[in-house]
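Hey team,

Filing this mostly as a record. A colleague (T.K.) asked me to run one chain through the structure pipeline before their review meeting, and I want the input and output archived in the tracker in case anyone asks later how it was produced. No errors, nothing strange. Just documentation.

Input sequence:
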Amino acid sequence: MATRIETDTMGPVEVPEDACWGAQTQRSLEHFAIGSERLPPVFVRAYALVKQAAAEANAALGVLEAEIAGFIATAAAEVAGGEHGDAFPLTIWHSGSGTQTNMNVNEVIANRANELAGGRRGEKSPVHPNDHVNRGQSTNDTFPTAMHVAASLLLDDALAPALDALLATLDAKAKQTRSLAKIGRTHLQDATPLTLGQEIGGWAAQLRLARDAIASGAPRRNQLAVGGTAVGTGLNTHPDFAAEVVARLAAKTGIAFAGAPDKFAALAGHEAMVELSGALATLAAALQKVANDVRWLASGPRCGLGEIAIPENEPGSSIMPGKVNPSQAEAVIMVCLQVQGLHTAVVAAGGQGNFELNVCKPLIAYDVLTQIQLLADAIASFDRHCVVGLEPIEAALAESVERSLMLVTALAPHVGYDAAARIAKKAHAEGTTLRDAALALGSLDAEQFDAWVRVERMLGPSAD
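Output structure:
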């Protein structure tokens, strides 16, 4: 392979001739051949936006020559737009601050900027990766800044649309089935009736609570560490640099970013990201409940509950012909478990701050962004391939209501709890109806039973 020689403070390094990165990226590739997990494109986009905003801010403040800043900003805009995607080969398993990732971004932007200026890759002239692209910055403040920007972008671009679409589908299904009575279940045992619409509406409400929890953290996760440099003091920055960068990032993304009020906390701890991870785990818990309900209600088709029908997307067995499984629900459940596991790692990583720096930043960034993307993908798939096609099986719903012993609950206010329990137990033991058991026990007459045990009056509060 043809190579070129690039240098850093430790000396010369052979870099592939066609690579857009430089010496420090190459050292990381050689010294950290660990795993295959890479920060996703949205993180690279966010970091490039930070570098673009920093170059523009430095030029506006007279800290960086306008021409050099222009080359940097143009190169950074290319990266933010998705160009040069193969120039970011590092896995997340390297320096806990993310230094190698920051230098990867600096080197790629510097090399591309030098090409735009008429130079060649590796020359560091007229644009230097540290002196110019990294001017007024440290990995310690830019990495968490990119982490917050990336999370907000991915929430807005991927998770929010998918979740809103699923909620719209659930709302429509709840409306469609609002008058279909079915038997409720608690502890996996028969309970009093409700409507299928009420049950589906409950799913939507759970998901909305989780969505609100994610949204409520926006003011904290939109606080950016940029301007803190190495330990939070802002050494080597212009006094107005942080505000200028934040304003530009807000303008470029349409997100209400603000400067972190305490840069020391923004570098040493990542509570806002831990909070977001917790909210995502909450969404996973709610989504898992919905997916489990769907697969139970659709169980069968003849020997399960069989109260709803869901789309048949693919064969479900390699040995049982004609079998179809609730695979979309199962995929969602696995995603939810993965999200909850990643949250455990994020919580642990969030506590790995020592003095002025948290040293698990790449792990936190990767896990939170993975949580967001997994949930977005799973929700979109579940909506499109399962929930949209969900339909009630009305005969099964009616049969379960008719056979349920828990309709006896309607009698309790009239004959008392103990007498109602005797009716239910007699009907169950003898395989008769509640009506027959009640009349046999002499607890009430037929007219009273028919007046008091009315399913439509058991679906909400009553003054009677």
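Quick notes for T.K.: The two ends are 86 Å apart (CA to CA). The mean pLDDT is 97.
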